[in-house]
Write a structure and sequence with these properties.
Radius of gyration: 23 Å
Shape: globular
Strand content: 15-25%
Structural class: alpha/beta
Distance between the termini: 56 Å
């Protein structure tokens, strides 16, 4: 199924996903603390029976057991060199269970390592890890990819960029939010929806987290911000430790289904269950939502959004914008190795009341792409003000857009045709802003 066909499939009516895998496998003999993906490949009949039950109960998409089958997570079990084989075998298990009655999604999650500067893994290393896993999933015959249980917007961006560059499959993406509606790294639901849609997610939403009764505000915010279908795949309530050390969840089937129907009324149209759910939960959801019609926001006159990782602004002609750097690089061109950061931080402080900041390093005496990467990393670590980038050099813009953990704006440089920036803007989901722009003043910038 290509991307266009999958989008049509999602847009026709409510689509049902499967429910939990891990908790149900544990109930059927899977030990704790082992590599789930390897165990499934060695006990394939257990997962196949579970997935057949899901399909009988209404699931139209089932997730292959490849959740933790990326090279970095598999290294914990000494299986990193078997990443491709494990992904291919796991997809084969689910394809055999589905028998063409449901789509099979290659399942992908976080690597378990923090990205720099908080951790040891670079953005490009994570992109390559995801490319390896996604390529194996596509080769194995997965119908689509799902990037799920993501806590970092930046790592989710890495996965979507990897999918663009490595495979032709459609991709869905879901993140986990707390009861306040933010991820572990502080991203709100609206910002997440804007960024994920801009990078080509066929559907986006929330999974795991709390129960469906805690998701309504998140779904509402995402529905208001995005045109694509919204996913809700919650846990069956709050976890507690049950018999034999197995985690149990406290929301009964009927209550879960009622809350899922409420989420559908809020605009979620791709529905399933996460931890603690079973085929019976999916069947109950199917019965509750079968008469609910879906609709999507009109694309006419949609606001223009620019975001950082934790803040979104609606761009219009009244927005204020501060400029840091220019083609002469006046405030950043001396002793940049040691003193750039003081100059940068002072300039950001002067612009703290602006809606967005425009970064330009074209006057840098150093290699411009590297300079831009350094300035972006330092800026997003210091402020949550959304950023706009300007450069006469497309490769410099790409260096910025690739690692920027949000949806950036782009301004054409003097003498630069805006149309020449369309491709790079589309590749990274950026907003190409119209000129002229009136910039605010900055004491540190002279």
């Amino acid at each position: 199924m290509n991307k266009e066909e999958f989008q049509q499939f999602l847009n026709q009516s409510i689509v049902l996903l499967d429910g939990a895998t891990g908790s149900n496998l544990q109930k059927n003999g899977m030990p704790a603390g082992i590599c789930v993906e390897q165990w499934v490949c060695e006990h394939e009949e257990v997962l196949q029976e579970l997935q057949k039950d899901y399909i009988r109960c209404g699931s139209q998409i089932v997730y292959a057991s490849t959740f933790g089958a990326n090279r970095i997570k598999l290294k914990e079990f000494g299986l990193e060199e078997q990443a491709g084989e494990i992904n291919r075998r796991a997809v084969a298990v689910s394809l055999k269970a589905a028998q063409g009655k449901a789509l099979v999604a290659g399942d992908i999650t976080m690597t378990g390592q923090q990205l720099e500067p908080l951790g040891p893994v670079t953005f490009e290393e994570v992109v390559e890890v995801y490319k390896e896993q996604m390529s194996a999933l596509e080769q194995a015959g997965a119908d689509l990819l799902v990037v799920e249980t993501m806590m970092s917007l930046q790592e989710t961006r890495a996965a979507l960029i990897a999918a663009k560059e490595a495979v032709s499959l459609p991709v869905m993406a879901t993140m986990s939010f707390d009861e306040e509606g933010r991820t572990l790294y502080g991203t709100d639901a609206k910002t997440a929806a804007i960024v994920l849609e801009s990078l080509g997610a066929a559907a986006l939403g929330i999974n795991c987290s709390a129960g469906p009764d805690k998701m309504r505000n998140v779904v509402r915010q995402m529905r208001e911000a995005a045109e694509v279908p919204i996913i809700a795949k919650p846990n069956a309530g709050i976890p507690k430790l049950g018999k034999n050390g197995i985690t149990e969840y406290d929301m009964p089937i009927e209550e879960f289904a009622e809350h899922m129907a409420a989420l559908a009324q809020e605009g979620a149209s791709v529905l399933g269950g996460c931890c603690g759910t079973s085929p019976e939960y999916i069947q109950a959801v199917k019965e509750k939502v079968q008469n609910i019609n879906i609709s999507f926001p009109a694309s006419d006159n949609r606001p223009i959004y620019i975001t950082s990782e934790r803040r979104t602004i609606e761009w219009n002609e009244e927005c204020s914008i501060g400029r840091i750097g220019n083609s002469n690089m006046e405030e950043l061109n001396e002793d940049w190795e040691e003193e750039i950061y003081d100059s940068l931080y002072n300039a950001i402080d002067d612009y703290e009341d602006q809606d967005v900041l425009c970064i330009c390093v074209d006057g840098s005496p150093a290699e411009r792409e590297e300079m831009m990467r350094r300035v972006v990393k330092e800026t997003v670590g210091y402020t949550s003000i959304p950023l706009v980038f300007q450069s006469a050099y497309p490769q410099v813009l790409e260096a910025a857009l690739r690692i920027y953990p949000g949806r950036a704006g782009i301004l054409a440089a003097e003498g630069q045709e805006p149309e020449s920036l369309t491709a790079v803007a589309a590749e990274y989901g950026a907003v190409l802003l119209e000129t002229p722009i009136s910039f605010g003043s900055c004491e540190s910038c002279g």
